[in-house]
Amino acid sequence: MKILSITRALALSLAARQGLAAVTQGISDTLYGRLIEMATLSQAAYANLCKIPPAITMVQKIYNAQTDINGWVLRDDSRKEIITVFRGTGSDVNLQLDTNYTLAFFQTNPKCVGCFVHGGYYLGWISVKDQVESLVQKQARKYPDYALTVTGHSLGASMAAITAAQLSATYNRVKLYTFGEPRTGNSAFASYMNTHFHSTDPAATKYFRVTHTDDGIPNLPPTAQGYAHSGVEFWSVEPHNAHNTYICTGDQVQCCEAQGGQGVNAAHVTYFGMSSGACTW
Ligand SMILES: *[C@@H]1O[C@H](CO)[C@@H](O)[C@H](O)[C@H]1NC(C)=O
To answer: Locate the Fungal lipase-type domain: which residues (predicted)?
Structure first.
């Protein structure tokens, strides 16, 4: 038994290093619980952070009126982390960002060489960059041993990915959890993320890209328009539990994307039984 599982683990890590597709079923209860915590914050962001754990302190809200980007910098002293969470699409202004697939040069992070990101979300990022960076910097200085965690769902997921990419140029304690993330950038951006967030190894990754059954948003924008995914995909199928969460590595279309969903569907708006902004959990 033991030999078999070691062989499988080796095959997985080898496949991952070569960028080949690998899928394994089941994650630990600890990791599953962690994904639920981050999904709770991301879904609560649609409703002014309803029902988030009392241990989490609100530091300050992030907001830009032109782009209607909404986020919060939070702090969890029990887990020693500074959390930045972004709300997903909540207005027509946000929808205009969602549908702007023009790739924009990722000018704010020169360490990301040849990187282009989703043009609409880049406008979103530019609109809140100063707020995010100064808030995170103040907290990071005050709490040097805290992790810098970034999370969000849908538009909020791509905002989180761009933010994490930017913060990773300055800090090496950034962690990223996204839910129903659209493709956020080109292949140079994807490689940058995979390198900085150790995403060739599911056991070491700091980029958890969570998807749900046939959520159609991870299939957009199309790869044909120069977009690619990054991070390690954690694919949750129903009934959702730790065993029904798959780990998917490599750059092939597989797991969630292979289900063929397109755009916003039922699977997109609910993660681990929690609907965006419903606050019923
Ligand atoms: C789409 O995004 C690009 C790149 O960020 C930007 O230059 C352009 O103005 C945007 N288009 C619209 C209609 O907002």
So the answer is: 85-223
**Cα 117 to averaged position of ligand 1 atoms, centre (Å):** 12
The reply to whether 168 falls in a domain is yes
**Model confidence, pTM:** 0.93
Position 71 in a domain: yes
Task: For residue 6, tell me if it sits in a domain.
Answer: no
Q: For 114-146, write each residue's pLDDT tens digit.
A: 999 999 999 999 999 999 999 999 999 999 999
Residue ranges making up the domain that contains 216:
24-275
| Ligand 1, CB within 6 Å, residue ranges | 100, 102, 104, 119-120, 122-123
Q: Is residue 81 part of a domain?
A: yes
- The domain that contains 82 carries what CATH number? 3.40.50.1820
- C-alpha 48 – ligand 1 centre gap (Å): 28
- Spot the catalytic one: 42, 127, 154, 199: 154
Which contacts qualify for 134-139: CB closer than 8 Å, 24 or more apart?
Answer: 135/59, 135/60, 135/62, 135/73, 135/84, 136/73, 136/82, 136/84, 136/167, 139/59, 139/73, 139/75, 139/82
Distance 173 CA to ligand 1 centre (A): 31
